[in-house]
């Protein structure tokens, strides 16, 4: 399977599911069980990932699980669309949160988004081991590299 | 849950685990709002007060450099440092302290031996390791193989996680020069029949090295009875400080081997014409050593010596029995490594769950385990898994903690349902 342009545009994360939705939901989550149940649910919203995308070039190093990331720059709208895949459910959920914040944005806008602030708002890093935090940062840094290339 | 009394099969005096836990201050804390359940002892074990106090006292009362100062503190430090070496010698039943080399850990010890044996190795020679080795007992041999043209050959394991002994015998040949094998597997918990392996290797004049990193937290090896040429272990896995480990080596081999690093302490005389080496063990101890850590390791060994080893082993085996009994309470859970002779370690997978998900959600419940490839990628490949979750127990863990692990796993499964 190869990803079509439509697959990228149809990704609900960052388009249909917005950052406000996630921030609102997080406010009502009391304990770790609810928090993680929600993160796992978000991960289920990641669109299917194309088999031919799972190649070294798209691999995100620095995660404990396997993570792949592909992108499509839409010339018409000037926006950058992303797809992420992982074999771990919680990583999928965290990737979904990253996409909610960064997917479908103009590269220049993406580069000015402070993702650390978002994680702080969500109080995520406090609950995530430094090892896992490194994986998140690796995903974000790969996305920023792509945006920088497209913006150049 | 099964009845508690089922596990107490051995007729030994029970270990007073509650009293022992008071010796380990770190255990009585909360993590993520839950009482800490520390089941990552295979990665690194916690330290008793005796170790903390010994290191504190060393720095407060006797710190100085060793083997150098013409003063009282220097003498005190040297005496504490060399006293620890004697403690290690006694622990291993080595013939002499000349055969006890301080290293940074098991990894450095194996690198030292691989490097030291390089002059003996020629193109086509074979170094026998096992499929279940930690990378630390594979990569140093690969590096020396690259330099010398020797080959590193793994002894296969069975699906249960035991060495294929028939294969071992058929792999031995006149080109085999080294046998390097783990005493206990860090992933599977398998206790390898090292006495028999060493015996077989000896008949053919093969040099033997035992990676004891995962064995010394549970057993006291007797290097003379085993008759191995080298035995390596780390302090931090046996309740001592990080940053120090031990290489035991037979003196005739250590004498023959070139120094590993050059610098202070390891020399007898330096000139620009000719430099000569210090005697054993100092020949292999360049630079100022980890003195406080050596003292701490000595204290850890003394602490272990103060416990009833038989009771300790019985308590550990009760933990493993309880864990095995509870596996069926988690649908889809499968233990990787079901050898007959095991230390209390369970590597496992749960259908539909990634090990990293399991680790994260156990941590939320205050339970510390390890997930990943455990620095044993060839073994992960053999089992066809990207990694496992591993709970590794120590004598200070309780049956109740084992039960908490399984209750937490059931909870995680519900979360993913």
Automatic annotation (TrEMBL), chain A:
This is SufE family protein. SUPFAM superfamilies: SufE/NifU. The lineage of its organism: Bacteria, Pseudomonadati, Pseudomonadota, Gammaproteobacteria, Pseudomonadales. Pfam families: SufE. Belongs to the SufE family. Residues 24-145 form the Fe-S metabolism associated domain. It comes from the Bacteria. It comes from Marinobacter salinexigens.
From TrEMBL, chain B:
Transmembrane segments: none annotated. Keywords: Pyridoxal phosphate, Transferase. Catalyzes the removal of elemental sulfur and selenium atoms from L-cysteine, L-cystine, L-selenocysteine, and L-selenocystine to produce L-alanine. Pfam families: Aminotran_5. The keyword Metal-binding does not apply. This is Cysteine desulfurase. Signal peptide: none annotated. The keyword Protease does not apply. It catalyses: (sulfur carrier)-H + L-cysteine = (sulfur carrier)-SH + L-alanine. Gene3D superfamilies: Aspartate Aminotransferase, domain 1, Type I PLP-dependent aspartate aminotransferase-like (Major domain). It comes from Marinobacter salinexigens. Belongs to the class-V pyridoxal-phosphate-dependent aminotransferase family. Csd subfamily. Residues 37-405 form the Aminotransferase class V domain. Its cofactor is pyridoxal 5'-phosphate. GO terms for biological process: cysteine metabolic process. Its EC number is 2.8.1.7. It is an enzyme of class 2 (transferase). InterPro entries: Aminotrans_V_dom, Aminotrans_V_PyrdxlP_BS, Cys_dSase_SufS, PyrdxlP-dep_Trfase, PyrdxlP-dep_Trfase_major, PyrdxlP-dep_Trfase_small. GO terms for molecular function: cysteine desulfurase activity; pyridoxal phosphate binding.
